[in-house]
């Protein structure tokens, strides 16, 4: 195991089933020893599916294992800080899902604990490690930096208030925090002020001013449909621009020392069809849009069959295909999940500088989030401390 870091996973729910379990199991620098969840069925399924030696429902059992060097925490947001602090005090390095915490004060508790422990902590703002955004940053830095940015992040029917009974603005806490961190990473500067306006719950526009003079707008919506790509980034540099469509394709405009089009392979899942992986590498955004359109049409057909009660065999077949065979519609592009956790392990092994978001970055994202919520609620520009 000298060439691998021994990991334990706390939380075997949705994000772990779609990302962390398959990624930890195939990462070059990781040996996944133990999975932990309060749900015994999830633990047993994960052990069987990914050949994980140990399973437990008690996180203290996992943390007491001296062989486990690092812990990935993928639980509900309110448990991130207490579990991470407990893991650090147990002598474990920590990779924790976003948001680091729902408030800046909670983040400060964790930054203090991390400093005291001397262990490494990374926040799963994985978009930093997406190949498309890595290339985008290289191009941006080579052309005078980002001056004007627009980022759209939208989900099909993913309306937090209706789905989870959450308060207005919860989507900003749990989803737009990704964008706050990515923009800081791409711009290389801190957010100085923010203004947020809402047309309705989970339909927001945000304007950010950075300390270096750059500006950015974010459109966040839970009211689109599956056939629309989830995320698009547009950046104007000193002279010229680039666009990244859903981490699948990067196009440049007026940047003659760059390629006009860069395409990036899709992200596979061991239990799903992986045809899209090569299609995205060869055909880019067009393949992604067509695949999303097919998925949308099948979900619409399934909804029609559910409403009518007709053709039960077709309904069963479609449900099985969408639930178990088709690519995860928002996880089929490479947003850096595997690269991020494997990079963390590699840095622990050889001491190289880690390029992932730190506890301090998690704190900064929480501060921007809180400022955005204040602006949304009070209808004013909110300044952030340097």
Description:
- With 386 residues, the protein is α/β, with parallel strands linked by helices.
- The chain folds into three domains: 5-125 and 336-354, Rossmann fold, CATH 3.40.50; 128-264 and 366-383, 2-Layer Sandwich (Dihydrodipicolinate Reductase, domain 2), CATH 3.30.360; 275-324, no CATH class.
- It contains 13 helices and 15 strands.
- It has helices at 14-26, 40-50, 59-63, 80-89, 104-117, 131-141, 160-164, 170-187, 275-283, 285-308, 312-324, 337-350, 359-378, and strands spanning 5-10, 30-36, 54-56, 70-73, 93-96, 121-123, 148-156, 191-200, 203-210, 215-224, 231-236, 241-245, 249-253, 261-263, 382-383.
- The strands form two sheets. Strands 14-13-12-11-7-10-9-8-15 form a nine-stranded mixed β-sheet. A six-stranded parallel β-sheet has the order 3-2-1-4-5-6, with helices on both faces.
- α1 crosses α12, α4 runs parallel beside α5 and α8 packs across α13.
- The longest helix is centred in the C-terminal third of the chain and has 24 residues, at 285-308.
- The N and C termini lie far apart (43 Å).
- 44% of the residues are buried.
- The model has no long low-confidence stretch (mean pLDDT 95).
């Amino acid at each position: 195991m000298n060439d691998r870091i021994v990991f334990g996973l706390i939380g075997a729910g949705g994000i772990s089933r779609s990302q962390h379990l398959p990624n930890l199991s195939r990462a070059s620098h990781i040996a996944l020893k133990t999975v932990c969840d309060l749900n015994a069925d999830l633990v047993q399924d994960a052990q069987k599916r990914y050949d994980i030696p140990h399973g437990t429902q008690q996180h203290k059992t996992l943390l007491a294992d001296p062989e486990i060097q690092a812990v990935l925490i993928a639980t509900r947001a309110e448990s991130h800080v207490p579990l991470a602090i407990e893991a650090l005090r147990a002598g474990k390095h920590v990779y924790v899902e976003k948001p680091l915490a729902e408030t800046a004060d909670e983040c400060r508790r964790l930054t203090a604990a991390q400093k005291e422990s001397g262990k490494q902590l990374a926040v799963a703002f994985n978009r930093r490690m997406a190949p498309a955004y890595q290339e985008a940053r290289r191009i941006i830095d080579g052309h005078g930096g980002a001056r004007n940015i627009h980022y759209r992040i939208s989900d099909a029917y993913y309306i937090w208030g209706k789905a989870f009974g959450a308060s207005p603005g919860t989507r900003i806490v749990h989803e737009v925090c990704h964008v706050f961190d990515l923009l800081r990473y791409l711009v290389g500067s801190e957010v100085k002020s923010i203004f947020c306006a809402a047309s309705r719950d989970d339909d927001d526009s945000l304007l950010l001013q950075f300390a270096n003079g750059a500006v950015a707008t974010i459109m966040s919506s839970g009211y689109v449909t599956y056939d629309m790509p989830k995320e698009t980034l547009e950046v104007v540099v000193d002279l010229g621009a680039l666009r990244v469509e859903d981490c699948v394709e990067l196009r440049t405009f007026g940047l003659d020392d760059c390629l006009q089009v860069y395409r990036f392979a899709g992200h596979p899942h061991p239990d799903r069809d992986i045809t899209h992986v090569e299609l995205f590498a060869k055909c880019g955004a067009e393949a992604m849009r067509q695949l999303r359109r097919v998925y949308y049409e099948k979900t619409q057909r399934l909804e029609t069959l559910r409403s009518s009660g007709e053709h039960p065999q077709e309904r069963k077949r479609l449900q099985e295909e969408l639930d178990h065979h088709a690519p995860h519609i928002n996880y089929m592009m490479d947003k850096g999940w595997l690269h991020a956790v494997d990079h963390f392990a590699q840095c622990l092994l050889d001491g190289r500088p880690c390029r992932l978001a730190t506890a301090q970055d998690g704190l900064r994202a929480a501060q921007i989030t809180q400022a955005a919520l204040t602006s949304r609620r009070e209808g004013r520009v909110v300044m952030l401390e340097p």
